[in-house]
Specification:
alpha+beta, four-stranded antiparallel β-sheet, single chain, about 10% strand
């Protein structure tokens, strides 16, 4: 990873160029406001993907745990309520997605690649490759948003 210093010029994932005036942890103070390290355009896998993936998996597992325990309670009729969902786990995943928008879109593109619909799969693959090449979040989101427009009927127009 490249070291960022005061007075460096960086480009965010929306294509906006910033001049760094101060650094506070993972937050850069720039001439256009504050951005996080995760909002800097880089080639390769976006910053924060692994951490966000782990947080999203933990949130999914927490919801699954609650649902399983609730169903067990209903099936057995024992009236023992499941422990409530741990909102801290869910909030952590949401906060990481906000701090690392490129990572969030990257993971969404990966999820599209799990689709059996070849158009949706292709959109996910294209968006993921675009982000890895340093493309903008807005362009990747547009690819994912318009995946169904890729449909070309095989039986003619």
């Amino acid at each position: 990873m490249t070291t960022i210093k005061i007075n460096d010029t960086v480009t965010d994932t929306n294509g906006i160029t910033h001049k760094v005036t101060d650094i506070c942890g993972d937050t850069l103070i720039t001439d256009k406001g504050m951005i996080t390290i995760g909002q800097i355009a880089t080639s390769g896998i976006p910053h924060g993907v692994d951490e966000l993936r782990k947080a999203q998996d933990a949130a999914y597992n927490e919801r699954a745990r609650y649902e399983h325990e609730f169903n067990r309670m209903m099936d057995t009729g024992d009236s023992i309520s499941p422990e409530p969902i741990n909102k801290t786990i869910l909030t952590k995943a949401q906060n990481l997605a906000v701090l690392n928008p490129a990572a969030a879109v990257y993971l969404q593109a990966e999820s599209f690649m799990g689709s059996s619909n070849h158009n949706k799969y292709g959109a996910g693959k294209d968006a993921k490759e675009l982000l890895e090449a340093g493309g903008t979040i807005a362009d990747a989101k547009e690819i994912l948003k318009t995946w169904s427009d890729r449909f070309v009927p095989v039986w003619g127009k």
